[in-house]
Amino acid sequence: MKYIYEVGDIVQLKKKHPCGSTEWQILRVGADFKLKCTGCGHEIMVSRTMVEKNTKNLKKACN
């Protein structure tokens, strides 16, 4: 399934973060994504292909 990723959306990935959360807030979109863990606040930069491959669900931000 093809998702449209936007800043502020919450993406649920297949694997858990060590804190136990599977949900990440999108802070930056491009060739790389900047994600912030909703559980502990840890921020990471990952490639777009990794996010697209491991996305389980996407919650759109309320604007």
UniProtKB/TrEMBL annotation:
Pfam families: DUF951. InterPro entries: DUF951 (IPR009296). This is DUF951 domain-containing protein.
